[in-house]
C-alpha cells in the first residue's frame, strides 16, 4: 500500500532527525520544579498541597463550569480511549504504534512507581467535597502525584508531534504549538474535574513528554515491535479490537459519554479495515 509506505517513510525520516538533546529541556524543567518546591519548603505532601490550594480552587472553579466537556476530554488520558481513536494507524502508520507501545509500557511503570513513592493525597482526600467541583467518581486515594492521565496524554502527543512533524519551519512551529496547546488543555481537565492539583498535571505532562521521546528512541534503535507491520499478526489486532469494543460498550452503558461513542466508531472502522486487509493478503 503506497500510502502506508509514504507515511512510514515520513515517520522514519522524522525519527532519524531527532537528537538526544531533546531530553535536556524537560529534565531541566523537572529540576527547576524541584528547586522551586525546595525554596518554598514544599517538599512534604502537606506543604506541596498548601502552596497550590488557591490555584487549584481557581482553576477547578472556572473549568468546572462545563463539567460535561471536562469529563469527556479527560477520558483521553485513558489508554483505552486515546488508543482506540488511533487504532487505524496500526494499518497506515505502524511505526507510530511501535513507539506507542514502548512509551506506554514505560508510562505504566513510572506512573505506578512515582505515585507510590510520593503518596500525595488527592484533593477529595483533603478538601470538603462541597468546596470544589468533582465530576464523576470522587478519587480520594494517595495517588495524586504525578497525574497518570497527564503522562499518557503527553506520551502519546509527543510521539504524534515528532512522527508527523512537517518539513517546513513555519508549519513545524504551528504544529508544535497546536500539539502542546492541545496537551495542556487536556491535562488541565484533571484539575477541572477535581482529580489533581495543577503541579500534578504539569509534572505528569513533562514526564509524559520524556517517556514519549524514550518510546521513539527505543523504536528507532530496537526492532521489538516490528511484527505490528506483518499482516500475519492481524488476527491479534482483530481480537483486541473486539475486546476493546465490548469494554467501550460497557462504559457507554455505564456513563454514556460522547467520547466513548467516538472511540467505538473508530474501533469499528479499524476492525473493518483490518479484516479487509487480512482477507486480501
TrEMBL record:
<feature type="transmembrane region" description="Helical">
    <location>
        <begin position="173"/>
        <end position="195"/>
    </location>
</feature>
<feature type="transmembrane region" description="Helical">
    <location>
        <begin position="232"/>
        <end position="252"/>
    </location>
</feature>
<feature type="transmembrane region" description="Helical">
    <location>
        <begin position="201"/>
        <end position="220"/>
    </location>
</feature>
<protein>
    <submittedName>
        <fullName>PAP2 superfamily protein</fullName>
    </submittedName>
</protein>
<dbReference type="InterPro" id="IPR000326">
    <property type="entry name" value="PAP2/HPO"/>
</dbReference>
<keyword id="KW-0472">Membrane</keyword>
<feature type="transmembrane region" description="Helical">
    <location>
        <begin position="258"/>
        <end position="279"/>
    </location>
</feature>
<dbReference type="Pfam" id="PF01569">
    <property type="entry name" value="PAP2"/>
</dbReference>
<keyword id="KW-0812">Transmembrane</keyword>
<keyword id="KW-1133">Transmembrane helix</keyword>
<dbReference type="InterPro" id="IPR036938">
    <property type="entry name" value="PAP2/HPO_sf"/>
</dbReference>
<feature type="transmembrane region" description="Helical">
    <location>
        <begin position="104"/>
        <end position="127"/>
    </location>
</feature>
<feature type="transmembrane region" description="Helical">
    <location>
        <begin position="21"/>
        <end position="38"/>
    </location>
</feature>
<feature type="domain" description="Phosphatidic acid phosphatase type 2/haloperoxidase">
    <location>
        <begin position="100"/>
        <end position="216"/>
    </location>
</feature>
<feature type="transmembrane region" description="Helical">
    <location>
        <begin position="147"/>
        <end position="166"/>
    </location>
</feature>
<feature type="transmembrane region" description="Helical">
    <location>
        <begin position="80"/>
        <end position="97"/>
    </location>
</feature>
